Amino acid sequence: MAEGLRYMDLCRWRAMDQMMTEPYHPEGMHLWNTPMESWYTDLVADGSDRSNVSSESRSEYLRPFERISTQAGYDGLRWKMAHYLQPIMVKQFQVTAPDGATVTDSPIYQNPYWPITADQPAEK
Q1: pLDDT mean over 90-119
Q2: Does the N-terminal or the C-terminal CB of the chain have fewer CB atoms within 10 Å?
Q3: What gap in Å lies between CA 114 and CA 84, rounded to an integer?
């Protein structure tokens, strides 16, 4: 238990597919509507840039990625098929290309659903 291998198990079992349609909202401790709410006097949950916790309207539990609407993961975390494998760095394509620069001439290939252009998100 708690050996840090859960993520690898979920990938091996392809259990992350359910996050492609239904986003995952990581939650922390039960904060709102508990006695702990009054223990903290500096909670700001108004959705502004000065917010330091997520709003009670989003969940009674603390949601670390949902403090402000501009945060990545504010609407939940989604999974893509490409995330089962890591992308191969573009530099590896360049190093193995005959001319040392043309990515498309490289004998190696990119993992499925990842582009061969640098700094691009997963395709699927």
Answers
A1: 93
A2: N
A3: 11
DSSP state of 9: H
User: Which has the closest alpha carbon to 105: 94, 114, 91?
Assistant: 94
Average of per-residue pLDDT across 68-94: 92
CB burial string 86-109: b at 16+ within 10 A, e below:
ebeebeebbeebeeeeebeebeee
Question: pTM, whole model, 2 decimals?
Answer: 0.66
Output the CA–CA distances (angstroms, integers) from residue 78 to 25, 36, 56, 106, in the order listed: 9, 31, 22, 31
Instruction: To the nearest 10°, report the CA torsion of 5, 77, 90, 124.
Output: 110
